[in-house]
Design goal:
Length: 211
């Protein structure tokens, strides 16, 4: 790829990933509730884990079929909305006893990564964004289109690690203070849950950003 074009791609995709979305809200909830480590594993699931499935689909053109089919896209959209509403509801209806117990039984890193991966995969907007955005930076005269798409997609996922990782580290710092205050943590979880439920409803009925 043209190095100048790749640099332009990196700057553009970082700028477009910065506004908060469903992924960043889940990362912040994890960081405040369970700490930076769990939040960072959630980020890895959203980026590296999800990318291992999404990038081959995009490179082979399968994802374009999903985007072209209103029925398939609507099904994926509703699945993503339902999953976010379920995640948010778990936080909203957390009881004080469950919160206290959760401190002795934290979310395991692999479970956090798996949850982050599922949340990203069932959200139709990341893959829709990639289908619409990546081809603009592909030059068929510079070699394999499939390889260029893989490089661009991997680059986007790595910038996602940086952007979402920043959310994880910042929220984790706040979480270290909240962890010693169970009542504050309980209400934070409920407020975060309301935001996540709202994002799920917005995903189902309104326009969304790419993340």
């Amino acid at each position: 790829m043209d190095p100048a074009l790749w640099i332009a791609f990196v700057g553009t995709v970082i700028f477009m990933q910065m506004p908060p979305g469903p992924d960043s809200m889940l990362v912040m909830a994890r960081g405040i509730g369970q700490g930076r480590g769990v939040a960072l594993f959630t980020v890895l699931g959203m980026t590296v884990g999800a990318g291992m499935l999404q990038l081959p689909l995009i490179a082979l053109g399968v994802s374009s079929l999903v985007r072209a089919s209103p029925l398939a896209f609507a099904a994926l959209q509703w699945m993503g909305a339902a999953y976010l509403v379920w995640l948010g509801s778990r936080l909203i209806f957390t009881s004080p006893d469950a919160t206290a117990k959760h401190e002795t039984r934290p979310v395991k890193p692999l479970a956090a990564a798996r949850e982050g991966m599922i949340a990203n995969l069932v959200n139709p907007w990341p893959i829709t964004f990639m289908v619409a955005f990546l081809p603009q930076f592909v030059d068929p005269h510079r070699g394999s289109v499939t390889m260029q798409l893989l490089v661009l997609g991997a680059t986007q996922k790595m910038t996602g690690v940086l952007v979402l990782g920043t959310y994880a580290l910042a929220s984790g710092t706040v979480g270290a203070w909240i962890m010693t205050r169970p009542r504050v943590r309980l209400w934070q979880q409920r407020i975060a849950g309301c935001f996540i439920v709202g994002l799920g409803i917005r995903m189902a009925f309104g326009n969304n950003t790419s993340r």
